[in-house]
Amino acid sequence: MTFQEHLDRFHQLQHTYLSWRDATQVLSWDWRAMTPKKASTARADVIGLVSAKENEVLCSEDMVKTLDYLTEHADQLGEVDRACVRLLKRDCDRARRVPVELFNEFAVLQHRSEAAWEEAKRTDNWPLYAPHLENMFTYTRRMMDCWGYEGSPYNAMLGYCEEGMTTEILDGLFRDVRDGITPLVSKVAASPVEIDDSFRFQRFDVEQQKKMANMLLAEMGFDLTRGFIAESEHPYTTSFGLDDVRLTNHYHDDQFIPAVFTTLHEGGHGLYEQSYDRSLNGTMVGGGLTSGMHESVSRFWENIVGRDRAFWEYMLPKIQAYFPQELKDVTPEGMYRAVNKSGRSLLRMEADELTYNLHIILRYELERDVFEGRVQVKDLPRLWKEKMEAYLGIVPADDRTGILQDIQWSMGQFGYFPAYALGNMYNAQYSARLKKEVDFEGALRQGNLAAIYNWKRDNLYRYGALYTPDELMRKVTGESLSAKYLVEHLTRKFTELYEL
Amino acid sequence: MTFQEHLDRFHQLQHTYLSWRDATQVLSWDWRAMTPKKASTARADVIGLVSAKENEVLCSEDMVKTLDYLTEHADQLGEVDRACVRLLKRDCDRARRVPVELFNEFAVLQHRSEAAWEEAKRTDNWPLYAPHLENMFTYTRRMMDCWGYEGSPYNAMLGYCEEGMTTEILDGLFRDVRDGITPLVSKVAASPVEIDDSFRFQRFDVEQQKKMANMLLAEMGFDLTRGFIAESEHPYTTSFGLDDVRLTNHYHDDQFIPAVFTTLHEGGHGLYEQSYDRSLNGTMVGGGLTSGMHESVSRFWENIVGRDRAFWEYMLPKIQAYFPQELKDVTPEGMYRAVNKSGRSLLRMEADELTYNLHIILRYELERDVFEGRVQVKDLPRLWKEKMEAYLGIVPADDRTGILQDIQWSMGQFGYFPAYALGNMYNAQYSARLKKEVDFEGALRQGNLAAIYNWKRDNLYRYGALYTPDELMRKVTGESLSAKYLVEHLTRKFTELYEL
Fold it and tell me: B483 with B177: CB under 8 angstroms?
C-alpha cells in the first residue's frame, strides 16, 4: 500500500471511530437528559454494548498498522493529519493495554454508578453509593495499571485529562495558589464589609429563566441553530461535531443566579465546541483541547466576564426584562457585589471565585490519596468533613452537601477536578494578555461581547486540539502556565471589594 | 449442545439484538426530536452504522443455527419463547435475503430522505424531495424482491407491516368501507346542519397546551414516570421496553385541538407500549403487535373515546382550566360537535373520523400502483390531486398540503398507511365488544377512564405480540376482521349528528 492509500485508510478509520464515539455519546446524553429513571439500568447495558464496539474499532489491527505506518512517515503528513495520527495513536495504544473484558465491564458499571449516585444524592444515602464509588476507584486503578505511569499512579489519570500534567507539577501550582489566596480568604472573613445579596432568593419563574438562558447564550455568540440547552440533574456540555453542541442546565425556582452562571459556564464550553476551524470538523483535533483548557474557557465566561462590574452595567437591564418585579430594585453595582460575595460555602458549584479553588484542592488531594493507597473509600466522608473544616472552616451536616454533591467521581471521572483550578490559572494568564489587546471593560460596558469572543476564537478556539496545552499557552501568552496571574487577579478584585 | 444450552444462547442473542435495536431507535428518536437540522446528514450516517451492526447481529450464523435448532424443537418451548423464536426467525430469514450493502445503503438513505422531506415540506419544494422519494420506492422494491412475495409485489410490504395481509384482502375490506361511507359523505355534504367550530381558532399559549397534554396522558392512565412527551415536526411514538416510552407532539399557537387529538393518539400508542405483561419485557413479543393493531389502539383513544359526547362532559372543564378565557363559552355539546364536524379537508391529520378513511385509501392505491409498476414517482403529485378531486371533491393548491404532507413515505415506510384504516376497523369491532362488557358512556361521563383502560389491558395490551392479528381478533371478538362494525359506527354517529 502506498502512502496515499494508508492516508485514505486512516481517514476512513478515523471517521468510523468518531462515528461510534458520537453514537456512544449521543446515547449517554440521552441517558442523562431524557431517559426515565426506571429505564436507567437497562439503558446502561445498551450504552456499554455500543461503547464496546467503539473500543473495538479503536483497538483493531487495521488501526494499529495504519497508525504505525503513518507515525513512521509523520514528516510527510500535514499539520492536521500529523496531530490526528498522534492523538489517535496515543488513545489506541492506551486502549490496547486494557483487556476488553475490563473495558466493557467498566463501561456498564460507570453508568450504573452514576444512576446510584443520583439516587443516593437525592436521598442522602452514602451507603447506597459507597460500593459503586469503590468500583469506580478500583476499576480506574486497574485501567491505570494497564496504561502505565511514572511516579504516582495518579499521574496516569492526570496525564489522560491534561496532557503532560503530573502530581509533581500540580502540587507546586496548587501550593502557589493556596499560599497566595489563604491570607486573602482570612482577610475577607475579617473585613467589616457586608454584601447584601438577599434579592437573589425569591420565586423566579422557571420558564422565564429558560428564556433568559437562551438570551444569554445568544449574547455570548452561541449559535442556537447548531445547539441548544436541555435540562439534567447535573449541568454539562457535550458535542458531536461543530453542528450539534448540547448544554444542560438545572433550574431552581427559588433563585435565578445559578441559572445565569451555569449558562455562562456551559455556554463557554459550548462556544469552544462551536468555534474551531471547520477544516478540523470530524477529525481527532475537532473539539476542545484538554479538560483544563475546556474549564478555562467555561470559567472565563463565568468569572472573567460574568463576575465583572462592566458586564452587569450592560447585562442587568436585559435580565431585569425577564423579572421586572423581582429585580426592580437591583443596581449593576449591587449585582456585581452579590455575585462576588465571598464566604464559606458547602457546595463547590455555589462557591465564589476566591474560595472555589480550595474546594478543588480538597478533591484533588482526596483522589490522589486514594490512588496512592493512603486513603480508603470508606473513610472519604469523614475526611471530606475534616478537610472542609481545615480549608474552609465549615463542616457539612450531611453527605448530600458533602461528598455526594458532585457527579464526577460517580462517572469514574477522576483527574478531572484539577481542571477547574487549572482552568482558573489558564484563564487569568491569557485574560491578562487579552486585556492588553482588547478594551475589555469598554467592550463589556457596550455589550460588544463579539469583540471578546473574536479574540478568544482567533487565539484559542480556532485551533481545536492541534497543540498541547503548554504549546498553546506559550503561543498565546509567551510563557508556560504559572499561578501568579490568578493570585494577582483575585488579590486585586477582593482587595477592592472588601476594602482589605 | 443441549436443548437448554440452545435456549440460553437464544436468550443471549435476543437480548443483544434487541439492545442494538434500542440503540438504533434511541439515536433515531434523538435525530428527530433533538438533533439540530444542520447536523442531520452527518448523524444519519452514524445511525446507519449502528443500524448495520443491528442487522449484522440479526443475520449472524450463530443466530441462524440457534433459531433453526429451536424451530425444530418448538414443541418443547413455552408459549412466549415459541412466539419469540417464530418472530425472530421470520425477521432473520427476511434480513438474510437482503445483501448487506443494500441494507446499509438504505439505512443511510432513509434518514437523508426524511431530512430532505422536512426541508421540502417547509419550502413546498417537490423537486427537492422527488429523487429521495424515488430512492425510497426503488430501494424498498429491491428489498421486497429479496424478501419474496406471492401475487402483488406490494404484498411483501403489506405482510411485513401486518402479518397475513395482502392486496386481495385489503381491496375487499377497503371496497366495503368505501361503499359503506361514500353515500354517508354525500349526505353529510348535503345536510343543512351547520356546526360552528370557530372557537378552535384563537391564540392558545403553547406552554399551557403542554401542561394540558400531560394532564390528558395522566387521565388516560399513561405512567409519566416511564415515559414523556417531547416535540418533533411530525408526532410519533417510540419505545425501548416498558420503562421508556416516548411520545412527540407538535404544538400550534393558533389552535389547541390538534394538541388534544395528537396526545390522545400518541398516548394510545404509548399506553399500549407501557401495558404488556412485564414477563414479556425485553423479548421479541414485548411491544405492540402489528402496525394495524397499534393504530387501532391509538385511534381508539382518539376517536372512540376522544370524539364521544360523554367524554367531553367530563373532560371539557379540565381543559377549560388551562384556557379559561379562550374556552369560556364552549359547552360539552359544542365541543362534541366541533370535533366531529365532517368536511372536505386537504390534510389527513386534520380529517374527521368519517372522511379520514378516504385519505388512507388514496395513499394505499398510490403506493400499491407504484410497486405494481403502473405509476411512476414523477406522476404522484398530479395523481394525488386527481384522486383528491375524485374522493373528496377538493384539490390542494400546493404540494405542502398535498403529497408532501406526510412523513411516512420519506422514511420508506410503505405499507403502513393501510394500518390507519385497519386500525379503524379493528377498533370498531372490538369496541362493540367492549361496550357490551363495560358501561362505556357511564365510565366516560364519570371520568372513570381506568375502567376502559383496564378492559383494553386485559383483552389486548397484555398480550404484546404473542398472537397474530387474526388470532387476537378472534380471541377478543369471536370473529375475523370485517368492515361492517366501522360502517355501522360511522353511520350511527353521523346520521344522528347531521340529522340524515
Answer: yes
